[in-house]
Amino acid sequence: MIADKGEYMENSMPKAIDLAALKTGGLIKQKEKDLFVIRLRTPVGKISADELDKISNISKKHGSGMLHFTVRQGIEIQGIKFDDLQTAKDELEADGIRVGACGPRFRVVTACPGEGICPNGLSPSQEVGLSLDEEFYGEEEGLDLPHKFKVTVAGCTSCCPKPQENDVGFHGQVEPELVEDDCNGCGVCEVTCKEGSIVMDDNGLPIKDDDKCIYCGDCISSCPTDAWVKKRTGLAAYAGGRWGRHPELGKLVAEFLTAEEASALIRKSLAFYKSSGKRGERLGVTINRIGFDKFKEHVL
Amino acid sequence: MSEFPVDDSIDLRGVLCPINFVKTKLKLEEMDDGDHLEVFLDEGEPISNVPRSVKDEGHQVLKVIKETDGNYRLIIKKSG
Hints:
The structure holds 2 protein chains of 2 kinds. By secondary structure, chain A is an alpha+beta fold. Chain A has helices at 6-12, 19-22, 49-62, 85-94, 125-136, 188-192, 218-222, 259-276, 283-290, 292-299; strands at 27-29, 35-39, 67-69, 75-81, 110-111, 151-154, 168-178, 198-200, 206-208, 228-239, 251-257. Chain A has 10 helices and 11 strands. In chain A, the strands form 3 sheets. Chain A has a 5-stranded mixed β-sheet. Chain A has a 4-stranded antiparallel β-sheet with strand order 1-2-4-3, with helices on one face. In chain A, helix 3 (49-62) runs antiparallel to helix 4. By secondary structure, chain B is an alpha+beta fold. Chain B has a single domain (8-77), classed as 2-Layer Sandwich (Translation Initiation Factor IF3). Chain B has helices at 19-30, 45-56; strands at residues 8-11, 36-41, 60-66, 72-77. Chain B has a 4-stranded mixed β-sheet, with helices on one face. In chain B, helix 1 (19-30) links the parallel strand 1 (8-11) and strand 2 (36-41). The interface between A and B is medium-sized, with 13 and 18 residues.
């Protein structure tokens, strides 16, 4: 990363480059001499066609004409010459395109399309993700962390954006409730429930085993007569997940959180990580060292 | 065969998702508001997905009948 080459840059830079801005990341050295990648901040992987046009123009003007989509829904403009770096960054910012993060800090939040787009969606993952990104990205509490800190929001229990692989991840969930008078006993919920939580009783009514229910809402969405209704909806929260060399899945911290409670959980997790994490370790390692129960005491 | 008189019928056993839904949708488009369509579906994914998608499109699923061969018969009322 360019931040590691600060000295080299200061001595050799042909034009003023904003070193303070480099600390927020997004400028990454390529393997090839004098070439850089600019990583863009595209929270929840959402971008307008007009913005994409602007990015395309900058890529053709200053870069190699190639873009790369990162696994965290970001866009990287490849092949920007060192001499053009500041100009390209200025032009992007003038176009309203923000440069994104690398390094030990709160990263750009990812999310699936969520309810409104995805037929399976149970929560507004895009809105929740954008709101969390606005609240924490580039803010003091998310900077100068022991290591990177990744957050994602999944709209449902299918967990497409992998909340259990993030430092803190969320997924939408819904608790079903049966309105018996509306049930015609068709049994679609019994065959639809992948968890084996619903069994039709002798009277032809579905009986739900709460211990097996994972709050996916398949019974609600498939019910022909709308007899299964939403009792409550919210976000399940996982913490301590990561990929990389030593992957580990995050553990369930809380269920049925509101968006405000999800935000509070991140705020407290960042504070815990900042005060208890050792340099270079991810949140999950800190949690393993200090204890999951103690972590929960800190954040709930 | 059914307590609901049907105006048309379509057999989608052996037809995969989402083609079974698309065929149901196209058949419903040919029909009049209030007409009843009978649809035969496989167990598994089709019976989990098709009633949901039909509901999302604003139609009414009047009845789901499990057949003796394990497959399903759906009665849909075209709405809108």
